[in-house]
Amino acid sequence: MSTYLFWHCPLSIMWSLVFLCAQKVVSDHASTCRALEFIPKELYPVLFKASFLGRKTLVLQDLVKRWPFPVLSLQKLLQSCKHCDCLPIKEKSSKLCVQAVILGVLAYLHQVMAGEDRKQQLRVLNMVGLQDDNLEQDPESMSLWSQTVTLSKACVDISQRHSEGANPSSKRRKGARSTLAATLAPGCQVYVEVHMDLFVNSTSSTILREALQVSSSSPLRLRCRDFRAEELSIRSTLGLLELLSPTSIRQVDLRFNNLGLPGLNVLLPFLTKFTSLLSLKLPYNNVDVRRLSVEMEASLQNFASQLGKLQSLKELNLGSSRLSGRLRQLLGGLQKPLESLELAFCYLLPSDLTFLSQSLHASSLKKLDLSGNNLCEPLLQPFQLLLKEAAGSLLHLDIMECKLMDSHLGALLPMLSCCTHLRYLGIFCNPISTRGLKTLLQNTLALPELRLIIYPYPVDCYSESLPWPTSSSSFLDSSFDQEKLSRVHAELQQLLAQAQRTDVTWSTDMYRHKTLDYLSL
Description:
This protein is an alpha/beta fold.
């Protein structure tokens, strides 16, 4: 009878039982350590997951040191099982557990290099995708910046030990030196490649540069997927870009670097070596092309020409650049359509949106951010045309702080209703009334894939004695009637429930909910 139940119980229940057993096994470090060499390798993934979620750091180190597979991918191991809803997986990873994994890899490398284990199994530690870009960083999680610094220091440290072991002039004892030198001789392939995303600023650029310089010959080799740099000089940024692998880079994000158009023209030629570059983000770089000298006109043309050489580019972010009337010049040279375009606070003109609606990009756009641009007249009509062209592909639309009122939103509803794949709509900080929000809700109920709308505090929830806020910062600081706002939210939830669309989240919290990342599609 028990055998029958085992073979005929749902897979989710079987997985839950296995996971519960794994939790019991890893609960005692000493017992687990003794048992690991007898445990089948097929059970290592579930033991890893149980250890990570239970924060059993010593067990994690032992598991990693004995990992029986060539690849250890944290994201795959920690993601929720397709057949299991037994335990939710936190999006953010425990700092102590991530450190334990890194220590386990280092212990494993020292063990192999010392000749204790001649058969190397682990080749790749995949740490990409562990961190999100939310502004609210969990203090118990490891930030991308901290992960970058930790792995950079580990790479430099183990590289130095490698060099000392292979150097006959080292002060180590002769026996130990000869053993280590034998295992680290030229041509020796003892290494683990770490696939990771890098986030660097002025305080961490030195250690990252040192790590990248020794990475190709170090037992711990850093291989970057997405590269993000903030508050770096042109020289520092260029020095790091030159050290990155040409074939592994998927995204380059250079923000808050104050590079200006001349600085970007220095850097862009070096990006053409990244043959797999899909995403380029250049927000907050002090670019203003509204009134240019003859010399700067040539600089703008060069910038556009360099963009056109990025053959794999699918995502472009030029947020907070003053681009009035220049979109045709900037994007007209791209040979392949963009699928994600972020132009927040770019002072766009009607001619810019007219060009975009008629370009090869319009019908391919999956993500579009026009926040901070005044989409009222005279931009409203070209924006309507753009929405009409993008309706078949658009998944994510941000039009926050665009001065849209009920009448403007009403004019956009026919186009929005055609965006049948839309998943996210951001309309925060627009002067829309409760009635306008309800009309929007009724007209988007039929969108089958819609899951999140970030909506503004309705104008009728504000004190009549105060003017309408003119920016998002003053909007958040303004006084509103909390009781009215709660009542509006309850009414919206009731309408969703009546329409059986409780799968759609309506929220005024623009920071709490994770929005769509184009590269995660």
